[in-house]
Structure formats: C-alpha cells, structure tokens
Design goal:
By secondary structure, the protein is α+β, with helices and mostly antiparallel strands. The chain has nine helices and 23 strands. The strands form five sheets. Strands 2-3-4-5-6-7-8-9-10-11 form a ten-stranded antiparallel beta sheet, with helices on both faces. The radius of gyration is 25 Å and the shape is globular. The termini are far apart. The N terminus is likely disordered.
C-alpha cells in the first residue's frame, strides 16, 4: 500500500482551478460500514457494558472597603458517565479579501470591568513594569518590545511582535513556543504557526476570521481524511479496546495523578481521542512548568478533579470536533476548495461547548480576578454575542479552590478561542495517531480504501520555519536579560512600615475578619505573598491567611 498521506506536489496544476476535483477524487469513495452521512446533532458517544477485564510601581494600599463575596456556585446535575475509570488503572466563509492576519497572538478586546488596577512603573529607557494588588509582578515590557507575562502560579510567557508581521511566543528558556507569520493563498489571508516543544517542530495553519469587528485566528486542519475514516472515528468499536498508553513511569502522569485518570478501556474511539487530548495537554503543560521553574510541588488539592461526568462532557466535545472537521471536509470538496462562510465555530450553533485550559488563564466573577490552570474545564452554553469580548462560562473542574464546580465566570473570547484551537489541534493529531495505530494494540483495523489523507489546499507547500527553535531561544534570552536589567534598576515597592505593637487589650484576631480590619489592628505586614484569591501576610509572631479578602486561617 502506498503512502497514506498524499501531498499536493503532484497536483499543482489543479490548485488554481481544480483543487476541489482532486480532493474529491482522493477523499471520496465507499464509506465501508459507515456511510458518509450527516453527523447526528448532539449524538453522544456510546459506551458498551464493561466486560471482564483480561489480566494484564509601588505597592498599593489595601482597599478598606468590604471585599466582594466569593463567586457562588451553581451546581449543575451530573451527566451520566460512560463508565467510571477503574482506580487501579492510574499508572505511571472564506475570509474577506481585505482581512489581514492579526499581529498579536493573545490580543485582548480591552480591560475587563473587573480587572484589578495595575501599578505601572515606566523606566527612562522606555520599558514598563506592571504590578498587581500587593505589588505582585504581573508583566514586564522591555524597551526592545518584549512582553514577559507572569502568572500567580509561577508560569511565565514571553511575547515579541516584529514589524514584519511575525510574532514570537516563547517559554522562559526558549525551548517551547511558536513563531507566527502571515501568508496568502488564492487571494485569502492565513496565518502559519511553527510550534517547537523540546526539539519537536510542527507547523499549523490558522484562518483570520473577521466576525463582529474582531479578528479571530481559527485553527484549520493541514489535511483531511477520507469520509469513512471520520465516521469510523466516532462510531462504537465492535468490542472494547484495552490500549497500552505506557504512561506509568512518566513524571507528568505522576504529577497530575490526583487530577486525571484515563479510561480503563475504550468502546468508542471518541473516548480514546479524549484521553489522547487530555494527556497531551497535561504533558505539554508539565514541560512548560519545568521551563518556568513552577513544577517544584504538586498542584493544589482539588475536589474531584476530572470526574466521570466531566470526562463524558470532554468526550462529547471531541466527537463534535471530529464531526465538524468531517462536515468541513465535505464542504471543501463540494465547493471546489472554498472555505466555509458564516461565523467562526465558536459563535455558531446553539450547543454547549467544552474548553480545557492548557496554561494559566484569568477569569472574573463578582468583581474579583481568579486564575485557571492547565487541565481546568469550562462549559459555554450557546454562542456568545458577537463583539462582546468576553463570554460567561460555567466551571466544570478547577484546581482553584475559589472556583468550585458550577461557578459562573467571565473569560476573554480570545482565551476561549485559543483553548478551542489547542483542543482541535491535539484532536487532529490524535486522528493521525489513531489511523497509524489501527490494526494494532487492540484497535480494530480499517479496510485499506478507507485510509489515507490529503493536504488541504490552503496548506499546500506549508513547511515549518527552519530557524524557529533558534529564534525562540534568542527571543527568550534577550527578554530575560532585558527584564532582569529593568527589575534591578526600577524602584522597588516600598518596604512595609515597622510592625505595629501588639493589639490593645481586649482586641483579638478572628476568622472572617477583612484585610482592612486586620491592618487596623496590626498595621502593615512584614511580608506579603499574593497567590491570586489567596493572600498570606506575615507578621513578627504570626501569619494571617486570606481567601477572597477574608481571614480563613491564623498561624
């Protein structure tokens, strides 16, 4: 059998006028046991009954107003699970012609009304240092144009935008990240990102989709599979599959042991793809933590983690994405290579969409800013309003104890889009792995005529930037040096005043007091650690711990 991935190099004569015909010729054909039908809307993956398992600038003065209450949880009823994972399996439209690609990878529509005020120190050389409440470092902008983002959990990210339209997003040591650049194909604007992850280099394509006056870079598959393969990828398998992932001894899996447990078996490839997506996301995030020096301790305890109903919702989303790609492939064939019109997928259809965070993400509720971390799961009910900038979502699972399941929060639509892009790219990667693995490791085999893929017309000739790894490393090195120089020369937050004398007779600290009340009694603390919703203040003889501005512990 020939190479299952056919390129377009031998069909260059068809790209100008007959692309759709070539794509149709390669990707059409018998659908074997799965007819090329319209995907069933809202169809959930089916789960078989489990058989017997074989053996085998200055510090801000704290506000003296009453702090906002913590977000209240609206607990949603749990969806039926496809089968609780066994505990013992925890081993180691065509874009507008005038549209140009967006220059900033994480551009925001503007400050959220709940965003805490930042103290900004401007240096003589033209740089800026942004600090949040309590003097916590949040962002450094160097005179050379680098922006270094600091998250409360220790994660860092470097961004640099160049005049030629290229954008660099790198980890602190430059071993991970991507290089983004615009390109055009057939008169249409596209964006290419060359991703680097510890020596592994891949190229991805994004469509600058203008909607509601905002440009959204939407992930597009580099290649399309045959219709029968897409159908096979979301229909039940004849018998459950016990797949050997081999994660037992890998550090990332031990790190997230209390958060995620893969399924013990797979009656449907959708569940296999869901675990592939979750595991890949967590493994990449673990590497990013190592790069940021933020993986010295396990994540904070969380209630439940990815429970069966949450994993079911993720599997439902994965199936929806596979069906979406299947419908998109059919549309490209039927419309001679033209891209779909209408709103981007994030804004189309009155469906519930699931998002998994792959890095630290700010969210807002009741006048407070909180942070998600990798592996946290959100649900968006219906399509957000066009041009709104932010969407209201429900927390389904979070490491943050201030965001229990059912909490309603507001998230930037650009952040939601990047989460969706990341999920779609990993699911696409999983489809390729699934096709490679079919017929082995217990996965059912497909007829040869149902295998193969064709590069998408807009991805013809796409190649990873050969210098991406070196450029990301240089960007990270320059940004680190520039940031250190700025922090060393800039004025530091003022040292807190000398400790106040002991409280007057009859006065005592108690749980539930506000930060303002504590400061009235004890004065300013000697040290402050701002961990997002959680704040720790250290006095000479005691430590006061706040959650959402209220005392929850005294040590």
């Amino acid at each position: 059998m020939g190479d299952p991935v056919k390129t377009w190099s031998s069909h260059k004569h068809a790209l100008a006028g007959g692309t759709g015909l070539v794509l149709a010729a390669l990707l059409s054909g018998p659908a074997a046991a799965y007819p090329a039908q319209e995907p069933t809307k809202g169809a959930a993956p089916e789960r078989a009954r489990e058989p017997e398992r074989p053996k085998q600038e200055v510090r801000q003065e704290p506000s003296r107003t009453k702090p906002a209450e913590a977000p209240k949880a609206r607990v949603q009823p749990e969806a039926p699970a496809p089968g609780r994972p066994a505990p013992e399996t925890r081993p180691g439209s065509r874009p507008q012609q005038s549209a140009q690609p967006r220059q900033a990878p994480m551009a925001r529509p503007g400050p959220h009304p709940f965003t805490p005020a930042m103290e900004v120190v401007r240096t003589r050389e033209g740089g800026e240092i942004h600090r949040g409440p309590g003097g916590v470092l949040r962002e450094v902008r160097t005179p050379s144009g680098a922006v270094i983002h600091y998250a409360p959990d220790g994660m860092r990210r470097v961004e640099v935008a160049r005049p030629d339209g290229r954008v660099f997003v790198a980890s602190p040591n430059g071993r991970g990240g991507y290089v983004q650049r615009p390109y055009r194909f057939g008169g249409q604007a596209f964006v290419q990102r060359t991703y680097v992850m510890h020596g592994v280099v891949t190229a991805r394509v994004y469509r600058p989709w203008v909607y509601g006056g905002v440009t959204y870079n939407v992930y597009m598959p580099n290649r399309y599979y045959r219709p029968a393969f897409y159908a096979w990828a979301w229909h039940p398998w004849p018998r459950p599959v016990y797949y050997p992932w081999g994660w037992a001894g890998q550090p990332w899996f031990g790190y997230y042991r209390g958060w995620y447990t893969p399924y013990p078996y797979y009656a449907n490839p959708v569940f296999w793809l869901a675990d592939f997506m979750i595991a890949t996301t967590l493994e990449e995030a673990y590497q990013n933590r190592l790069d940021s020096g933020a993986a010295s301790a396990p994540p904070p305890p969380a209630s439940g983690g990815l429970t069966p109903d949450v994993q079911q919702a993720i599997a439902d989303e994965v199936q929806r994405q596979v069906q979406q790609e299947q419908a998109q492939q059919a549309s490209v064939v039927q419309n001679n290579g033209a891209l779909p019109s209408g709103p981007p997928p994030l804004f189309s259809g009155n469906v519930n969409r699931i998002f998994m965070a792959y890095t630290s993400v700010p969210v807002y509720a009741n006048g407070q800013e909180y942070f998600l971390s990798e592996g946290d799961v959100l649900q968006l009910r219906g399509a957000p309003p066009a041009g709104s900038g932010y969407g209201d979502v429900t927390v389904m699972a979070s490491h943050n104890p201030s965001l229990p399941k059912g909490t309603m929060v507001s998230v930037s639509l650009q952040d939601l889009l990047e989460m969706q892009n990341h999920m779609m790219a990993i699911v696409d990667q999983g489809l390729g792995t699934l096709q490679t693995q079919q017929g082995s490791n217990g996965i059912p085999a497909l007829p040869p005529q149902n295998l193969g893929a064709a590069n998408a017309p807009y991805a013809a000739g796409i190649q990873a930037d050969p210098n991406a790894a070196g450029e990301l490393s240089q960007v990270a090195t320059d940004a680190a040096q520039g940031g250190q120089d700025m922090l060393a020369q800039a004025p530091q937050p003022p040292v807190p005043a000398a400790p106040a004398p002991a409280p007057a007779s009859g006065a005592s600290l108690s749980l539930g007091m506000t930060m303002a009340q504590v400061h009235e009694m004890l004065g300013n603390p000697r040290q402050t650690a701002n961990l997002g919703a959680k704040v720790i203040e250290v006095y000479p003889s005691l430590k006061v711990i706040y959650l959402n501005g209220v005392v929850t512990d005294i040590q």
